[in-house]
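Worked example

This section walks through a single chain of length 173. The input is the sequence exactly as stored; nothing has been trimmed or padded.
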Amino acid sequence: MKCPYCNTPESKVVDSRLNQTGDMTRRRRECIRCEGRFTTYERVEEVMPSVIKKDGRREPYSREKILGWLNKALQKRAVTALQMEQLVAKVEKRIQSYGLKEIPAKNIGLMVMRELHRLDKVAYVRFASVYREFRDVEEFMAELQEPPVSQEDPSLLVFPFAAESDASAEPKA
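Given that input, the structure is written out below as tokens.
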């Protein structure tokens, strides 16, 4: 870790602490050269599956994209940055629990919608209106009538690539 004062790459760790959730380490460091002290925050890098877009393209998972969506949906709402981070962490843990190498973007969107529904109903409606690409007021009103589908059961998720391989795996009579 480079010193922010003199740009020396060598520093020693003076103190380390885990945050409350245990997913980030705060390290207090001291530069060996100028003796300046600075703090670094380290997060364990977890391998996330690739995201399958609507058009079939694959791209790396991006936490920043989800936070960007949430920022727009939660604009001028009484939701803290910590609550947004917790929402994203919850979605990421669920994604990882499936143990897949790829996951459709649609599933990630549904997970975010479900968590938003619990956190802030107005933000949920904002997110859903963009995510679901409503064509008319009736579709929008129908969305408001029903809460998002629960995803506790992985069989409720849509994995088109799995459905294709399941169909081809059936014996032909």
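What to look for: The first strand starts at residue 11 and ends at 18.
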